[in-house]
Amino acid sequence: MPSIHLFNRRFNFASDDLTLPSLIDIILRFPLLIIFIIYHLNDKLSNSICSSSFYIGYFYPLLIIYIGIIIISSIICFVSLQGTPVNNIYPRRHMSLLIYIRLIFVLIDIIINIIGLIIILKSFEICEFLSRRIMILSIIISAILAISLFIILAIFIDLTGVVSAEKKWEMRIKFIFSCGRSYGGQSSDIQNIVKTLQYLFDDERFDLVASDVATGLILLQQEDLLEERSIDIIESAPLNIVQEGLYYNSYAQSAFGWFSLAYQYRMTFIPRILFAMRYRTIGLCCCCCGLTCCQNPDSLYDPCGSQYTTLQYLLRKQKPIILYANFFGAFGRAPFYIAADNEKKTIIISIPYQYRMTFIPRILFAMRYRTIGLCCCCCGLTCCQNPDSLYDPCGSQYKTLQYLLRKQKPIILYANFFGAFGRAPFYIAADNEKKTIIISIRGTLSAMDILTDINAVEDILETELFGNGHCHSGMHSAAKYIHNDISTRLVDIFVKYPDYTLVICGYSLGAGVAAILSILFKSTYPHVKCYGIAMPGSVLSENLALATRDFIYSYVVDVDMIARASIHSLKHLRDRIIDALNKCNRNKLRVLTTTFIRTLTKRRLVFHSMMSESTLTNTSLDMNSTISQIVSTDHSSEYERLIIPGTIIHLYSTDRVGLFTRKASYRACISTYNQFTQFIVHPRMWFDHFPASYSTALADVIENLNNSSTV
């Protein structure tokens, strides 16, 4: 900070961001320069047969330009290390000039290598083997570095002035989240996202780049680790609420489908898939449905029948009778099939081989538009599909759900795996043990889900029981989609299960959607309850959040950053980052390396519990007074303040924890939303949002509560 300006354009990197790129440039070119010098000394002693044009037109100029590039890169590296991120940028005032000189050297390097390419074509056979290899190596390295440099400049250029600020953010969203394709959402939703991003990042008071944000977070992490932070325990969380949270956590996490399976077996998932593909089938459908009606008795190593069906499709013109197929592939073995061709009156033995140039695009298309899982409509048999499982043509997601819920053994009544902007996949199951109808909603898994997350402006939520309030716009869209999809279906379900109650659960984004959906269903189903695991910090306005405490339960582990994420907390974090950068007296590289490593290895007790209201005044975060004043007095904001809904169960650690802490002891308390209005920048702020953290914390709290009750 501030960003670099070149050719009258702003680029999204700062003058102190060029240390590592310059070092990489030096590391790649310096060994090659040494090789050039050694080669030249040996070449003079051995009477080279290369023409003089090689030395005059290519070798000597290349040697000079390499020395020049190494010198200018060394100067850039040295200058980039000077000063501080904000307060002392004077030592880096000539960085733009150095970059211009470096670009000139790049152009000269390109010209010299073009000349070298011409010389190679003319006298390639004349020069000795080593000379030819050195020329080719030099051209390849120079071309890679030059292309990389121009690509980086193209990526980091700021288009302000060329397009409007709104269009700039819209282009970024389309490029990052949908690879330039249409994102499938309403233009008003995209405008809401653009408006939010502009509010947070487009401010004339500061000029932040990505490395500044990273540096600021490390500085805040160092500050927050030393903070003595207390929590006001209104009351300890009842054991039954924690047990219910752990029970429905399984349903919430199972909505992730194959990703939950991959996370559950994260150390062995790839070997398991490879094993299945190696010993069961060659195709992508790895025994995903397991229905015997899909299998053909004359098709070996094809449990889903996908290979047999593929053969029928490939031979649809000839229409032979497939007599036998063996799809076992191994070392010294080859898959094959035998078919009878009635037209030619021949018996054919062959191996399928088609669509080799377009197979991957076809598979990607199927994955994009037909199913979320790995089984991409590969078998096409209606027996694999379930009529109550939408956007799951192979039934793989349905079977994955059954496997993930094998302990609870619920009856899966309906599933909709359609994931898009403003939509969330979900399923409905009947739990016979708890006598509940469960709606489980998937959390963030795709780029479109992230768009739903950051569509964080407030929507008006009209309710019959609690009056009008506001809610998260993206979550509201997903909740309305689910409500419209299952309202009629739920009536039929409760006719079949009259003694059952309704439970809605979800994880992360799914938890926020579940909270809003439970409000929409509350008037129809008064017995509804919502269990939000890893509940986001920006879901409902204060009046609705407080009114739903008797049926919405929000679970938060320790310093989970998503539970503290909102437009207001992000704005507060931005202001804290700017303040930390202003006070920083070290260069950016030192902060990003030594300070970061020291901070990661520290283990601190994050929270100290307190029971009395008299000491509550000492529990506030020790922040810069001006920043605190900005946050506390910023009532003129155009955004409604959204908070965590319902009863908040905070699962906090009672041990010193760090990034590499494997085991911690947890306690649970009923907390207030005021405890989650600001980010705690901690090494575990992201890891505490992971599914394993919630499963471990909930189980540990139950164990501790049981142990304390028996004492």
Automatic annotation (TrEMBL):
Its EC number is 3.1.1.116. It catalyses: a 1,2-diacyl-sn-glycerol + H2O = a 2-acylglycerol + a fatty acid + H(+). It is a multi-pass membrane protein. Keywords: Calcium, Cell membrane, Hydrolase, Lipid degradation, Lipid metabolism, Membrane, Metal-binding, Phosphoprotein, Transmembrane, Transmembrane helix. Its cofactor is Ca(2+). It is found in: Cell membrane. The chain crosses the membrane at residues 20-42, 54-81, 101-122, 134-157. The keyword DNA repair does not apply. Signal peptide: none annotated. CDD domains: Lipase_3. GO terms for molecular function: lipase activity; metal ion binding. It comes from the Eukaryota. GO terms for biological process: arachidonate metabolic process; diacylglycerol catabolic process. Gene3D superfamilies: alpha/beta hydrolase. Residues 439-566 form the Fungal lipase-type domain. The keyword Phosphoprotein applies. InterPro entries: AB_hydrolase_fold, DAG_Lipase-Related, Fungal_lipase-type. Its main location: membrane. PANTHER family: DIACYLGLYCEROL LIPASE HOMOLOG-RELATED, DIACYLGLYCEROL LIPASE-ALPHA. This is sn-1-specific diacylglycerol lipase. It comes from Adineta steineri.
